[in-house]
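Shapes recur. One chain:

:::
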Amino acid sequence: QVQLVESGGGLVQAGGSLRLSCAYSGRTFSTMGWFRQASGPHREFVGNIVWRDGRTYYPDSVKGRFTISRDNAKNTVYLQMNDLKPEDTAVYYCAVRVEILGKFDYWGQGTQVTVSS
């Protein structure tokens, strides 16, 4: 089992920045990802970090604006979001998968990010 708790969401103006946190505990995992859900059931992938080597990956929609980092001493992963746009408005989730190419198995409760124009 992995327990995940997101925090750091809020209301910001377009062009602003937020840093989200994901505090984790429990068993080891291969990958932590960040996702967002604006409406409907789909959660859009916005980046991940491979635990073994720290490599990060981002889709084109956020590349250059979002950065994932981790602080092992605090058991926390961060999602730094810069130059926010109204279309970034969503509930943001962190999630982990045990197998590197497998399903994301464990999810946090999410934190709301609202970007005003």
